[in-house]
Specification:
Length: 300
């Protein structure tokens, strides 16, 4: 089976490459070979290579910058995935498209189920929702696609919250982190494993004809909780001798260009049931990530 990975130099893309199952031939791509800003190039690349699956891990992920670059965010996160879907519809290949908790408004008080009505509150979320809807429209409920939503992705590869916090804990005396945005982190390693399982088990053939799935680690936390845990673990692991003090701050006192949902926990039960797999607790994932960063001498 031939699988094209877009965004293979991003944090999920790199993990996908590290965890390729033995029976799969991968075509890695980046913005040089498969630029989502160039729809003709995307189409031609798919017609030339005829992959059995595409994992669309590429995205415009700069949440704050997207507020100023709406057109570009929509091109990359919506128009390009729609073009990919149209090309695959012709070649017969399948699409695993990665989406986000930011399609929701954060007003819920219980984990978002797969059929909860999306209502994004920033441009990034809007662009990702347009992508989801466009893909659904192209495939019209046939068995050629899966949309996998995830949240707060971090790992030892690429840029992410864990690595940013670790650097700040090393260089500052005190850091302020928001306590009133609640969700769950997702280990990019386990997310990549779920992507491969989806393809290997081909869950497009599931009896309920379900197309949207959710995947995160298990548990609940705020960004403050994660930063605090990183501080404690990095001390225990001897990554840091004297990590900065982490203090809680409200979102109101930490303004960002893009609004973030206050609550974005995703209900992953249907994915767990279908794939017969349990998700890793976020604290265990964080420990693994920090151990890996230590082995790579990340802070040296
Ligand atoms: N990170 C999170 O917290 C998070 C949360 C929820 C959902 N997601 C979703 O998860 C997926 C993977 O995200 P990630 O964390 O791996 O993001 P990432 O580390 O920012 O990687 C995104 C990749 O997309 C590539 N890309 C951007 N514009 C492109 C273009 N025009 N043409 C080709 N490639 C382009 C980037 O290339 P360059 O490196 O060259 O820029 C990068 O390799 C995305 O769909 C994202 O929306 C992420």
């Amino acid at each position: 089976m031939k699988v094209l990975i877009t965004g293979s130099k991003g944090q999920l893309g790199k993990e996908l490459l590290k965890n390729i199952p033995h029976d799969i031939e991968v075509i890695p791509s980046d913005r040089k070979t498969f630029n989502l800003l160039d729809l003709n190039n995307c189409r031609e690349f798919i017609f030339d290579n005829k992959p059995d699956w595409i994992i669309n891990a590429a995205a415009y992920t700069a949440v704050d910058l997207a507020e100023d670059e709406e057109e570009k965010a929509i091109l990359v996160n919506s128009e390009a995935p729609i073009e990919i879907a149209k090309a695959l519809k012709k070649t017969g290949g399948k699409l695993l498209h990665i989406s986000t908790d930011f399609v929701f408004d954060g007003e819920s008080s219980s984990p978002y189920k797969i059929d909860h009505e999306p209502n994004p509150i920033n441009i990034y979320g809007k662009s990702k929702l347009l992508g989801e809807n466009g893909i659904k429209n192209v495939f019209q409920n046939n068995d050629q696609y899966i949309i996998l939503r995830t949240s707060w992705v971090m790992g030892s590869e690429g840029n992410n919250f864990a690595k940013t916090i670790l650097k700040l804990l090393k260089t500052k005396e005190k850091i302020s982190v928001v306590y009133d945005q609640i969700g769950c982190m997702t280990s990019s390693k386990y997310l990549s494993i779920i992507c491969w399982l989806i393809i290997q088990k081909d869950i497009t053939k599931n009896v309920n004809n379900q197309k949207i799935f959710h995947w995160t680690d298990s548990g609940v936390s705020s960004w403050f909780d994660i930063a605090t845990e990183i501080g404690e673990l990095s001390f225990k692991l001897n990554l840091l001798k004297k990590p900065a003090k982490v203090v809680p701050i409200s979102s109101e006192n930490f303004p960002t260009k893009a609004k973030r949902p206050n609550f974005s926990l995703l209900d992953c039960s249907s994915t767990k049931e279908l794939l017969k797999i349990e998700n890793n607790n976020w604290r265990c994932s964080l420990l693994e990530i920090l151990q890996e960063l230590k082995s790579k001498n990340f802070l040296m």
